[in-house]
Amino acid sequence: MTAANSRRPSRALSWLLPWMQTSTTMEHEQATFWLSQFIGKNLRIHASDGRVFGGQMKCTDKDRNIILALAHEYRAPSAETIRQAVEESGNPSVGVPWNSRYVGLVVVPGQHVTKIEFEESSLPGQKSGVTL
What we know:
Layout: H1 3-7, H2 11-16, H3 25-36, E1 42-47, E2 52-60, E3 66-75, H4 79-89, E4 99-108, E5 113-118
Antiparallel strand pairs: 1-2, 1-5, 2-3, 3-4
């Protein structure tokens, strides 16, 4: 392995995780191509501030910004809300729903995307059974 090869991720890894690469024109093109495969699909985008956006991907750009349509924003419940639910139920593993709101069309900046999940459905127009 040469010194140049030891500094760059392998080609296979860079194809799977294009946003982990350093910034060059070709790597931005690979990341954009990789993301473009999900246009029209339902995705869940995890943001660096802890929010999760679920919606239909409409487009991306060279900076890996992602536009979702028909989107919902999900926020984890506060520690106080969880504490109250545990006290009321007496069950330390009580389920507490996430806060959600419909946001419609949303742009998630590429630099804040931490995780992308493909939401596969069994029937057209039906979301999967995964609960946030």
